[in-house]
Amino acid sequence: MTTWTRVCAVDDLVPDRGAAALVDGHQVAIFRLSDSGAIHAVDHLDPFSHANVMARGLVGSRLGTPTVASPMHKQSFDLVTGQCLDDPAVSLQVWPTRVADGWVEVGSAAA
Amino acid sequence: MTSAVPTVHDMTTEQALPAEQPGPAKKKLAVVGAGMVAHRLVEALVERGADQSWDIEVFGDETRPPYDRVALTSFFSDRDPEDLLLGDGSLWRRPGVRLYRGSVVSRIDREARQVHARSTTFDYDKLVLATGSYATVPPVSGSDLPGCFVYRTVDDVAELRQWVLDREAALGRKVKGAVVGGGLLGLEAAGALTALGADTTVVEFAEWLMPLQVDRAGGGALRRIIEQMGVSVRTSTATSRLKAGRDGKVSRLQFADGEKIAADVVVFATGVRPRDELARDSGLEVGERGGVVADPGCLTSDESIYAIGEVAQIAGRVWGLVGPGYTMAEVVADRLLGGTATFEGADLSTKLKLLGVDVASFGDAFAATNGSLEVVYADPTAGVYKKLVMSDDAQTLLGGMLVGDASAYTNLRPMVGRALGSDPTGWLLPEGMEPPSGSALPDDATVCSCNNVTAGQVRCAVTDEGCTDLAGVKACTKAGTSCGSCVSLVKKLVDVQLSEAGIEVSNALCEHFAFTRAQLFDIVRVSEISTFSELVAQHGTGHGCDICRPVAASILSSLGKGHVLDGENAALQDTNDHVMANLQKDGTYSVVPRIPGGEVTPEGLIVIGQVAADYGLYTKITGGQRIDLFGARIEQLPGIWKRLVDAGFESGHAYGKSLRTVKSCVGQSWCRYGVQDSTTLAIDLELRYRGLRSPHKLKLGVSGCARECAEARGKDVGIIATDQGWNMYVGGNGGFTPRHAQLFAEDLTTEELVRAIDRFLMYYVRTADRLQRTAPWLESVEGGIDAVRAVVLEDSLGIAADLDAAMEAHVGAYEDEWAATLADEKKLQRFASFVNAPETPDPDLVYVEERGQRRPADEAERAVLIAGASLPVRPKEVLA
Ligand code: SRM
Ligand SMILES: Cc1cc2nc3c(=O)[nH]c(=O)nc-3n(C[C@H](O)[C@H](O)[C@H](O)COP(=O)(O)OP(=O)(O)OC[C@H]3O[C@@H](n4cnc5c(N)ncnc54)[C@H](O)[C@@H]3O)c2cc1C
Ligand code: SF4
Ligand code: FES
Predict the structure, then answer these.
(1) Chain B 560-579, CB below 8 Å of chain A: which residues?
(2) SS3 labels along B156-174
(3) Contact present, B472 and B505 (Cβ < 8 Å)
């Protein structure tokens, strides 16, 4: 079962700029895209540098896929699947998100 | 076949997943030797999906994963050995591929189909020998003395370098070096020794240098050029013994003719020999002069064993270049997948830059073909010797050699076996012939001999594989990825093909903009555009990326279209610009207040010290004459800056592609030699250009006299005081390729100087490419520094007034970004550590103490500190 954590108001998210949130003890990076309005959440931990920085990466697109680039060494990740586009062996965990009453909620699997 | 994971004791292994996997049984491939050719083999297998049917185990006795041996000498230009590694390492992390490093294969048991490495045996179904060569040492007495080296591995060159540095320190004088062997490798080693500061002598047994590649006349030309560089050359000289000094280290070389020379270090570059001992011991057929005999399918006398690379002898010879080795690797990859590819010999052309001298030889360079004619062009004063070998009717190019100027090589080599046109001598003249346009080259001409890629394959990559730029073609065909000498030709072919296909040749910034930075700059300048979304909607596609977003941000800012962090611009900035601090490896930031000209009051120092102490920041004096405070968490930045701004400090833009510092010496105000007030000028300039966004960072320097204590000539703009005024230098650069600034204008008044710098910087800001500093920019501008001088001092383009106005606008609009941010509640929100817990520190940060300050814990320290194990990490202790 998924439990939903309310993290912030939709308007607290600057379009195309990430924000970090604590969800159930995990550090999650949340992005709101300016074109589609979609909200994506992935691990905040950069698997390459092992620093908690993904929310501070630049949002963009590669051939239509929305991406975020690690601010540390610039590897790009698919925001939808979490897959690293520069190294097939690496990916970020993707977290489900939803909007309820103007609030952004992030889902985590309850034990 | 055993499926158990072997117990590997003292070997370093790199592998991602456990080997146990259900499913159809995979066959086992053992690759002995982990060099360049082994790497290509595994790469080729993985590319073709062979890792689905084969478990691949690679054994290498070196401690590093396969690296680029061809580029070994670049180790001396301070390159990190890591940079030499082939590929990005992900190959070795794939399931089904396993690399054992530091692991010597000591025996092959052909009966049992097993290899022995250290104390373990590994089964195989097929085995590939790729053990390469070892460097030979001539059998003269003393050749094993301390201070004698060969030149084959990263460890060899690292030890050589250390030895030279240590000897120089111990002897307190220049080191004397000798290289035995005047061939290709010997000259490369001589270049390395010279670069290390040694007085070097090359000793060659033959009558001239590089006897395998060039003829007597070419060798003579080469010798003259090399001697002019201060390297001594002795030809027709046999080394008879080496002698040690009193300390037991090598000190002298004795020659067969009785003469001797002093030498504190000796490098042997007398040849290589295939490492075929494993094959010999296991009874495989080995050639008379070494090399494991293999057929054109690279199969040895045992049908389960292949041999590839420098260890293999195919078609009666050993192929000592990486190109043929790569072809063999492709052949074996194909065979392992059931194919029938064969190795049909290879092009042994070479082009090298030895000690900065171009040497190339290709095709039938020694005119061995019956009736062949030689066309020679020689200019001894310029140190140039060029020769073409033509067929007896002077029509067809058979080969050639080029010494001193090998610029014609890339165009000539693919023409071997083809008609050169009416006047072959035209190709040899200094200006060269108009090279054949990319489209004239026949499809079957090899353009990249390292990777055996033809002109047709390059064209195909564009037309059939959809590659749209050089990078794509390189990735797809591998052309140009080894020695790099063919890149200019490959690029030409790609460009021609693209424009023929109606695709505009791309200087595009990235997939979102088909413009260069300079073009985008002009678009924004002449339009009303002031946001990224307008720009991408009107002139681009998609959603932008980490390349074009910061470029757009910089352009908008250079043109004064709003605060870099206002509105939508905020989303364009790299994290450094976004939070106005520099990201560190653990995700914290550094803080650098501006200290113009390096001048700081005691009160200012006390504030900085107090802030650092209160926040526990690591402090260090930077190379830019100011103070850096490291380890600030994102949520701490506003508090830190509030205190700094209150004390009169402002942003130092250490994070921006913008002005960093104007370095200054103390100058006339204190120094007894100073002829002008360098400190005041430096401060004025720093305040004038602070905050100016540019294609890359900018640094200036001002020295108060020609003693140059501010190292101004290492800066983008350097100013040196004269009795009459100021001399202005431009285009100085540190970094990977340091460049001294060149004299731009002399004896300027302060007013003239400021105007010249204004225009120079604005012109650079407008026209340079993304991340192009002033040195490479000056090189790229048509007409070079003279053209820029004409624009700046004589207004040759009629844009001077425009440039002046742009700089005035910048100066007038400057405000301190940090002060502005602190005054804006909305902007302060971005410094929250977590949206739902804005003040909570990142719980994963761990620090240790070192020399009275703290630094991020490394992996090992973290493991201990987090696990709370009892292993002592003294004298360090946890701070956070
Ligand atoms: C702090 C400092 C080293 C120090 O402890 O002294 C430093 C630190 C960094 N340098 Fe530097 N450089 C520092 C002086 C220099 C100097 C010396 C100088 O300025 O006199 C040079 C050579 C001179 C030059 O620039 O031509 C220098 C050449 C570089 C380069 C190579 C630039 C090039 O043109 O190739 C880079 C890489 C880059 O900018 O792309 C770089 C990049 C960096 C970065 C920004 C790397 C990064 O992205 O993390 C470092 C981060 C700074 C930080 O976190 O605060 N740093 N760096 C120095 C800060 C000076 C300052 O007060 O602003
Ligand atoms: C300084 C220098 C410059 C060069 N420049 C050029 C150039 O410009 N152009 C060019 O084409 N070629 C050049 N070469 C030659 C090129 O490097 C070789 O042709 C190429 O490396 C051959 O590849 P290989 O895989 O066959 O052998 P290697 O790259 O030598 O790899 C063999 C590997 O196997 C290991 N090994 C051997 N025996 C065992 C064992 N029993 N157990 C485990 N491991 C073992 C070795 O230690 C080595 O790491 C240059 C070489 C040097 C040294
Ligand atoms: S401070 Fe400069 S030289 Fe030192 S590691 Fe960082 S970038 Fe490299
Ligand atoms: S010829 Fe060496 S990389 Fe192409």
Answers:
(1) 568, 570-572, 574-576, 578-579
(2) HHHHHHHHHHHHHHHHCCC
(3) no
Task: Give domain status of residue B413, yes or no.
Answer: no
Between A and B, how many CB-CB pairs are < 8 A?
112
Q: Indicate whether B219 and B280 sit together in one domain.
A: no
Which CATH number characterizes residue B123's domain? 3.50.50.60
Query: At residue B255, what is the residue type?
Result: F
> Using omega within 30 degrees of 0 as the cis cutoff, is the peptide bond preceding B875 cis?
yes
Q: Which of B545, B576, B833 lies at the smallest CB-CB distance from A20?
A: B833
Residue A47 clears pLDDT 80, i.e. is over it: yes
Class of domain A2-106: mainly beta
Sign of CA dihedral B761, B764, B770, B775: negative
Q: Is A107 on the interface with B (CB under 8 A)?
A: no
Same domain, B175 and B79: no
Q: Are residues B226 and B124 in the same domain?
A: no
Closest chain B residue by Cα to residue A35: B543
Residue B807: inside a domain, yes or no? yes
For residue A34, list chain B residues with Cβ-Cβ distance below 8 A.
533, 543, 571
Residue B415 inside a domain? The answer is: no
Give the span between the Cα atoms of B505 and B496, in whole angstroms: 8
The answer as to whether B555 is a domain residue is yes
Do B232 and B252 lie in one domain? The reply is yes
CB distance B274 to B133 below 8 Å? yes
Domain that holds residue B218: 148-270
Nearest ligand to the CA of B409 is 4
**Is this prediction's pTM over 0.80?**
no
pLDDT in tens, B60-108: 999 999 999 988 887 877 667 778 888 878 899 888 999 999 999 999 9
**Residues B246 and B289 placed together within one structural domain of the fold:** no
Both B797 and B721 in one domain: the answer is yes
Beta sheet of B317-318, edge-to-edge order: B292-294, B312-314, B317-318
Instruction: Please say whether the beta carbons of B131 and B278 come within 8 A.
Output: yes
Cβ–ligand 2 distance for B638 under 6 Å, the answer no
Nearest to B200 by CA among B217, B220, B182: B182
B858-872 pLDDT, tens digit per residue, is 888 887 776 654 444
B485 pLDDT tier (thresholds 50, 70, 90)? low
User: Measured between CB atoms, does A58 come within 8 Å of chain B?
Assistant: yes
Among B549, B840, B844, select the one facing A58 at the smallest CB separation.
B549
